[in-house]
Write a structure and sequence with these properties.
Radius of gyration: 19 Å
Helix content: 10-25%
Number of helices: 4
Strand content: 15-25%
Length: 169
């Protein structure tokens, strides 16, 4: 769905300008490649104090809001559900980590107030007003279809436990 080397993806993200909030400078220690045999990296949601805070980062303060659009093409209902799960829309929700400083507790994001709509291409060409071709997507149906693809012992349960949004501090 996201594409790979030589393969175009079906999901396209726009820029995400900040619409509310403030920025600050936060100092963290230099980042290094993680060590160990564990293939998964777990980053804490709580801010970590480091002994050698030498690397300045421009950060947005908690509560900041960003606005962006995500465009998708030719996703099945189950694939749409998997995308929604990846964006933390499942129950319980997960909080994604983006950007630098994840190992220092930075970068936790939550997607709120998502509106998911799809366009019916045949209606788009037939309608004088293009807004008539757009319809809301039933996200509950998509999430149910995605859950049928996942095994109960799948990594999603561990991710929801480790990265639950309730753990944000």
């Amino acid at each position: 769905m996201f594409g790979a080397m030589g393969y175009e993806g079906q999901i396209f993200f726009s820029d995400a300008p900040m619409v509310e909030g403030k920025t600050a400078v936060h100092f963290i220690s230099a980042q290094h490649q993680p060590k160990g045999d564990d293939a998964r990296r777990h980053y804490p949601h709580a801010l970590q104090d480091r002994r050698d805070p030498t690397w300045p980062l421009a950060v947005t303060l908690p509560g900041s809001r960003f606005n962006f659009r995500l465009r998708f093409e030719n996703l099945t209902t189950a694939e749409m559900g998997l995308l929604l799960l990846a964006l933390g829309q499942g129950d319980p929700a997960i909080c994604l980590k983006i950007g630098a400083g994840k190992s220092s507790g930075l970068g936790a994001i939550q997607f709120n107030r998502m509106a998911v709509e799809q366009v019916i291409v045949a209606d788009l060409y037939a309608a004088y007003d293009s807004s008539a071709a757009w319809m809301s997507v039933d996200t509950a149906v998509c999430l149910t279809a995605a859950q049928k693809l996942l095994r109960p012992d799948d990594a999603l349960s561990r991710l929801q436990a480790d990265l639950g949004c309730g753990r944000l501090r």
